[in-house]
């Protein structure tokens, strides 16, 4: 298995262009099963999760061709309604095919996603939405069997906010008979971009960017051409890399308006931030101040930047309190950061970070996608050399991260095992 070798303590400089969003692309790929024909997606990142979703679509009979940063998805000959265990167990987002398969073919057989490093991650709200729309759900041998001759519009009220359940409900409701409302819907930009693509396919959806979506079902949809929004989590990760190393960099091809909560916290921590249409310039301040964060659904502080921000707080002056409200177990990076001489204690879903003057390089191990990113950031700031094992986690969600960091002046090498 590959690992990263990082020599820390170097300043970064220059600019980095952000890739298309993984979490916007995955549901849109599934949505391409809804129309009959070839949809085209531009600005698609080269990531293992995208390759995995392409494989899931091919299993249903879709044809998926990829060239440069474009995907062509032709769902004309889709005929198999199953997302098998060996795929779903590797990537939870495979469950996104359930809504489209049920809406277009009246049936879907999807393996229960396994747990992962950040918790059990149930799918009860996905199933609640499908049942509300009239589907019969059976669970057998670890598979979800959903059937419904014709989905009927319904009132869907989610007890808590779920990005995935909102996406699946949307993709099922667009072809249901009649009108559907989704209350307590997720408002993440990735849901907005899914709504844009579904609308381009001919769906009738109102309430974009609000927590109440209204869908008027149509009888069929047409293939669409669309371009993926930039990855706000990748952009935030690079901003934190600059903050950690006391560097000035420019992040380009991004959407500053998708990062408001992070930018506010970076300003509070003493960084200088300048934004323009599609770029953010970050410059060091006089000192790095400890700041508290609570992760919450969009537009509040994103859970996907919690590990990276915690790394920044390791070097801040003072103590910071980090509360993780989305995933109960999303502190796997704490033990690894403490190996780098951080001073973090955890009590239930709250981490208390005591700022230290330096981190020191060591051998560490990645456990999940965003924890791996946090360890890379720590290595950039740590004194000496840091070796990070199991970096296949990071390849799931960051396109060419070591090349982008090298361009900014970091001393990071991928050692192929
Ligand atoms: C999406 O996951 C993202 N993944 C996650 O990013 C992100 O952390 C998460 O949203 C929250 O923003 C993709 O978009 C592919 P949820 P998702 O449903 O949809 C619970 C990354 O690093 N829940 O919003 O799976 C769930 O356990 C990944 O790129 C239920 O209880 O997240 C969690 O506690 C990690 N029942 C909370 O809701 C359900 O049926 C929010 O989960 C569904 C979710």
Question: Which characteristics define this entry?
Answer:
4-stranded mixed β-sheet; UDP-n-acetylglucosamine1-carboxyvinyl-transferase, Chain; 14 helices; 25% strand; 417 residues; elongated; 2 domains; alpha/beta; binds ligand EPZ
Could you give a quick summary of the protein structure above?
The protein is 31% helix and 25% strand. It is an alpha/beta fold.
Describe the protein.
This protein is α/β, with parallel strands linked by helices and 417 residues long. It folds into two domains: 3-19 and 230-415, Alpha-beta prism (UDP-n-acetylglucosamine1-carboxyvinyl-transferase, Chain), CATH 3.65.10.10; 22-227, UDP-n-acetylglucosamine1-carboxyvinyl-transferase, Chain (Alpha-beta prism), CATH 3.65.10. 31% of the residues lie in helices and 25% in strands. It contains 14 helices and 24 strands. It has helices spanning 22-31, 48-59, 85-88, 98-105, 124-132, 163-173, 189-200, 232-244, 260-268, 306-313, 332-339, 369-381, 392-395, 401-407, and strands at residues 3-7, 13-17, 38-42, 63-67, 70-74, 82-83, 107-111, 136-140, 143-147, 155-157, 179-183, 204-206, 212-216, 225-227, 248-252, 272-275, 280-283, 293-295, 319-324, 344-347, 350-354, 363-365, 385-389, 411-415. The strands form six sheets. Strands 22-23-1-24 form a four-stranded mixed beta sheet. Strands 2-15-17-16 form a four-stranded mixed beta sheet. Strands 4-5-3-14 form a four-stranded mixed beta sheet, covered by helices on one side. α4 packs parallel to α6. The protein is elongated and about 65 Å long. The mean pLDDT is 96. Bound molecules: ligand EPZ. Residues 23, 26, 92-93, 119, 121-126, 160, 162-165, 190, 303-304, 326-327, 369-370, 397 line the site of ligand EPZ.
């Amino acid at each position: 298995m590959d690992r990263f070798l990082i020599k820390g303590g170097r300043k970064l400089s220059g600019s980095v262009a952000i890739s298309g969003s993984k979490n916007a692309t995955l549901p849109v790929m599934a949505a391409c099963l809804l129309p009959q024909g070839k949809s085209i997606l531009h600005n698609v990142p080269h990531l293992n999760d995208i390759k995995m979703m392409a494989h899931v679509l091919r299993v249903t009979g879709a044809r998926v061709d990829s060239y440069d940063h474009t995907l062509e998805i032709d769902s004309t000959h889709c005929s198999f309604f199953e997302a098998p265990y060996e795929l779903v167990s590797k990537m939870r987002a495979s469950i996104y095919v359930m809504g489209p398969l049920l809406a277009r073919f009246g049936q879907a057989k999807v393996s229960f996603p396994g747990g992962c490093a950040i918790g059990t991650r149930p799918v009860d709200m996905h199933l609640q939405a499908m049942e509300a729309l009239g589907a019969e759900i059976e669970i057998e041998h670890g598979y979800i069997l959903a059937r419904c001759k014709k989905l009927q519009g319904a009132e869907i009220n989610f007890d808590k906010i779920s990005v995935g359940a909102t996406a699946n409900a949307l993709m099922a409701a667009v072809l249901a008979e009649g009108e559907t409302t989704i209350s307590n819907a997720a408002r993440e930009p990735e849901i907005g971009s899914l709504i844009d693509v579904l609308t381009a396919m001919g769906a009738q959806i109102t309430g974009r960017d609000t927590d109440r979506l209204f869908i008027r079902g149509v009888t069929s949809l047409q293939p669409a051409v669309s371009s993926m929004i930039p990855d706000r989590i990748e952009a935030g990760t690079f901003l934190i890399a600059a903050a950690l190393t006391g560097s000035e960099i420019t992040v380009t091809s991004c959407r500053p308006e998708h990062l408001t909560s992070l930018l506010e916290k970076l300003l509070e921590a003493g960084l200088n931030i300048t934004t323009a249409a599609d770029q953010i310039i970050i410059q060091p301040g006089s000192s790095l101040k400890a700041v508290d964060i609570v992760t919450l659904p969009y537009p509040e502080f994103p859970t996907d930047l919690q590990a990276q921000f915690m790394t920044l707080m390791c070097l801040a002056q003072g103590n910071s309190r980090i509360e993780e409200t989305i995933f109960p177990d999303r502190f796997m990076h704490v033990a690894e950061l403490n190996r780098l001489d951080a001073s973090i204690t955890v009590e239930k879903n709250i981490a208390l970070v005591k700022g230290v003057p330096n981190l020191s390089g060591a051998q560490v191990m990645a456990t999940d996608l965003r924890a791996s990113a946090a360890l890379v950031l720590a290595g950039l700031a740590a004194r000496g050399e840091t070796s990070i094992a199991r970096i296949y986690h990071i390849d799931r969600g960051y396109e060419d991260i070591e090349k982008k960091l090298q361009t900014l002046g970091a001393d990071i090498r991928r050692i192929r095992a």
